[in-house]
């Protein structure tokens, strides 16, 4: 169907011309984050202040632009300054005073403001940055310490240490399991050359020919597709928080203007959709997604390809596809960030999914508490319709699909598929007994496929780079990466995207910088309010659906909370149990009554009125609720209690037998508190 690719190429050329007319090439570019979290930290004022400085300077060779959030939440607002021929420099916690200093000294004078640089480990950016892939298949099973060897050969060659910065980064996405052997990959900036190296001779040639001689070592150039995260490494590679990540779902966040469809097009936007419509083979799409081992990122981890196959094979001419953006976990904001930072990738994934199952209508169900995400999704839908990427006869393919937004009212249970469907239909958001599953009888009784935001954001990447590439990142059963909102007692909070199979240690210490305040790690809680609490000694647990389930926790949508020695595990369990009790829809007795009774018992324990019998009751109630509840909320609600009873039973016993809270967090049992009155 050449008409599809012809239409796409015309759009792409139009986008390139529009971007070129903005005239940013060869200019100094100032990038300011623009998302809910960034704006709350003052990003709007920072953006306006830079615009005022540019106007006052009279310079026409300086541009300022907005992007989505980079994910480094604890250091916002973040500003990225890119001068022609120089490596980008990132500044954190920028305010109006900082704007003036950054603009006058760096943008105008060319000298970075060292003391304001994000995670500054030097006073001036190095001339060259050498980034070695340390991905699971590429860097962690090496027969040589390539980074160490590189440093040694640099010294032997007389290259000064400050001239080259050597970094061990996370997966570039270039590996092929059957081909890698002893190879790894090296990205050199600012030339942005990627080498595939296997031995000491390769490293020596790079040092002598490229570093010292300034010439490319042609024989070592990789012939693979460019890594999906290369753009991100180019902009953020010198910051440990970023260079240890592998950005796939978040590939454009913090890089492109999320309100510009033309800019998205220039970053391979809608290429996957055009490929799919041009090929016009629904089974091929489903097979690719299946072979990629992409599993649903909403929490259950059901294979996406299998779900799409069920939807495609369901009888009937009317089918629906739904994006579940009802993000309700306390402390989780992955979906919000993706919708605010790169809405087009999510919508592109929805169109591909709709084509695969034969749906002509879709819904994006998003909570009303996300006004900026809603605004940007609405704008994205409008722009897609304008350019023929949504609606009737998309790109001349004969395939028609349109979608609309439905707002949720903040009910946590509506993250469950059948409750969400009820809500869209205008009914009370309560789960239904399954089967039938939504793929057989869902929205208005028609076959319906539901995936979450992150799942759809990964789909275009699977199509462009192929199932083999995507599945080479991650584990045997779970392909690709997972986005986590890393919060709690950790030095660097924010959004983290890492390959499936990465350890908790790598996330908490390698990326998060370890426990804040010099405290000792006590536990990590994954999976939101329905997740389990894993003790510090389990820090080397790998992160994937099956492993976390066996460990007594869940992946969930991606919340990850770090707890230190000052946290009381009994109080933590009570907090999450109270949340689940409040959010229970009340339809089934095990969840409605069981959660209430568990909260009552935990209240007694944290006020010094508990007994040893209460610990047995908690375990029996928790196991009963998990077995008998109607939906996933109830079946997972006891996890925080059961996991803390398993790993931190001594804390429960101290509350019950000694009438004290070891962490002094439970007020009734803290040091100096009056003894509780017995009933």
Describe the protein:
The protein has 679 residues and is α/β, with parallel strands linked by helices. It has five domains: 27-83 and 88-116, Glutaredoxin, CATH 3.40.30.10; 128-237, Glutaredoxin (3-Layer(aba) Sandwich); 261-469, 3-Layer(aba) Sandwich (Rossmann fold), CATH 3.40.50.11540; 481-564, Ubiquitin-like (UB roll); 569-669, NADH-ubiquinone oxidoreductase 51kDa subunit, iron-sulphur binding domain (de novo design (two linked rop proteins), Up-down Bundle). The protein is 41% helix and 14% strand. It contains 27 helices and 17 strands. The strands form four sheets. It has a five-stranded mixed beta sheet. It starts with a helix and ends in a 22-residue tail after the last helix.
List the helices and strands and how they pair.
Blueprint: H1 2-21, E1 28-33, H2 36-40, H3 43-57, E2 62-67, E3 79-82, E4 89-91, H4 96-108, E5 128-133, H5 146-156, E6 164-169, H6 177-180, E7 184-189, E8 193-197, H7 200-212, H8 230-236, H9 240-243, H10 261-266, H11 271-279, H12 282-291, H13 304-313, E9 320-325, H14 334-341, H15 343-357, E10 361-367, H16 371-386, E11 402-408, H17 417-424, E12 448-452, H18 453-465, H19 467-472, E13 481-488, E14 494-499, H20 504-511, E15 521-526, E16 533-535, H21 545-550, E17 559-564, H22 569-583, H23 589-606, H24 612-628, H25 632-636, H26 639-647, H27 649-657
Parallel strand pairs: 1-2, 5-6, 9-10, 9-12, 10-11, 13-17
Antiparallel strand pairs: 1-3, 3-4, 5-7, 7-8, 13-14, 15-16, 15-17
Helix pairs in contact: 1-11, 3-4, 5-7, 11-15, 11-18, 12-13, 12-15, 14-16, 15-18, 22-23, 22-26, 23-24, 24-26
């Amino acid at each position: 169907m050449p008409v599809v690719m012809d239409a796409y190429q015309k759009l792409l050329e139009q986008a390139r011309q529009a971007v070129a007319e903005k005239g940013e090439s060869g200019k100094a570019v100032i990038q300011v984050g623009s998302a809910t979290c960034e704006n709350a930290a003052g990003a709007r004022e920072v953006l306006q202040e830079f615009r005022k400085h540019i106007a006052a300077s009279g310079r026409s060779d300086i541009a300022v632009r907005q992007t989505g959030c980079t994910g480094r939440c604890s250091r916002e607002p973040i500003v990225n300054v890119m001068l022609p021929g120089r490596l980008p420099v990132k500044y954190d916690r920028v305010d109006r005073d900082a704007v003036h200093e950054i603009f006058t000294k760096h943008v105008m004078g060319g000298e970075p403001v060292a003391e304001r640089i994000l995670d500054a480990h030097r006073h001036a950016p190095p001339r060259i940055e050498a980034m070695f892939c340390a991905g699971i298949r590429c860097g962690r099973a090496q027969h040589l310490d390539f980074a160490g060897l590189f440093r040694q050969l640099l010294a032997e060659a007389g290259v000064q240490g400050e001239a080259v910065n050597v970094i061990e980064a996370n997966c570039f996405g270039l590996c092929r399991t059957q081909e890698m052997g002893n190879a790894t990959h090296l990205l050199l900036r600012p030339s942005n050359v990627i080498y595939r190296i296997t031995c000491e001779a390769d490293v020596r040639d790079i040092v002598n020919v490229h570093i010292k001689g300034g010439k490319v070592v042609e024989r070592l150039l990789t012939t693979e597709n460019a890594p999906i995260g290369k753009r991100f490494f180019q902009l953020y590679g010198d910051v440990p928080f970023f260079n240890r990540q592998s950005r796939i779902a978040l590939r454009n966040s913090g890089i492109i203007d999320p309100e510009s469809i033309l800019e998205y097009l220039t970053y391979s936007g809608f290429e996957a959709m055009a490929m799919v419509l041009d090929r016009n083979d629904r089974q091929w799409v489903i097979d690719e997604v299946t072979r990629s081992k992409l599993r649903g990122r909403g929490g259950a981890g059901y294979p996406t390809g299998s779900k799409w196959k069920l939807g495609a094979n369901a009888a009937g001419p009317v089918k629906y596809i739904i994006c579940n953006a009802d993000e309700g976990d306390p402390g989780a904001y992955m979906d919000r960030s993706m919708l605010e930072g790169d809405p087009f990738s999510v919508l592109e994934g929805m169109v591909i999914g709709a084509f695969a199952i034969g749906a002509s209508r879709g819904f994006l169900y998003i909570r009303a508490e996300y006004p900026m995400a809603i605004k940007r999704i609405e704008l994205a839908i409008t722009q897609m319709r304008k350019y023929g990427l949504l609606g009737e006869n998309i790109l001349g393919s004969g395939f028609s699909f349109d979608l609309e937004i439905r707002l949720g009212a903040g009910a946590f249970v509506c993250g469950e598929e059948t409750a969400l469907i009820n809500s869209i239909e205008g009914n009370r958001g309560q789960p239904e007994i399954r089967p039938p599953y939504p793929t057989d009888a869902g929205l208005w009784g028609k076959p319906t496929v539901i995936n979450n935001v992150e799942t759809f954001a990964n789909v275009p990447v699977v199509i462009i780079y192929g199932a083999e590439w995507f599945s080479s990142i991650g584990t045997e059963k779970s392909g690709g990466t997972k986005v986590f909102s890393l919060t709690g007692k950790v030095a660097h909070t924010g959004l983290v995207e890492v390959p499936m199979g990465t350890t908790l240690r790598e996330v908490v210490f390698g990326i998060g910088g370890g426990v804040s305040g010099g405290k000792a790690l006590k536990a990590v809680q994954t999976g939101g309010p329905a997740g389990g609490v894993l003790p510090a000694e389990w820090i080397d647990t790998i992160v994937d659906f099956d492993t976390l389930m066996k460990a007594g926790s869940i992946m969930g949508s991606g919340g990850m909370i770090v707890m230190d020695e000052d946290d009381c595990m009994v109080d933590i369990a009570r907090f999450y149990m109270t949340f689940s009790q409040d959010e229970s829809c009340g339809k089934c007795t095990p969840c409605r009554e069981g959660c209430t009774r568990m909260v009552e018992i935990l209240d007694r324990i944290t006020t010094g009125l508990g007994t040893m019998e209460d610990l047995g009751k908690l375990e029996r109630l928790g196991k009963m609720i998990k077995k008998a509840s109607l939906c996933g909320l109830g079946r997972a609600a006891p996890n925080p209690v059961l996991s803390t009873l398993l790993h931190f039973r001594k804390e429960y016993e101290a509350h019950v037998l000694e009438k004290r809270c070891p962490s002094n967090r439970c007020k009734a049992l803290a040091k100096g508190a009056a003894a509780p009155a017995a009933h």
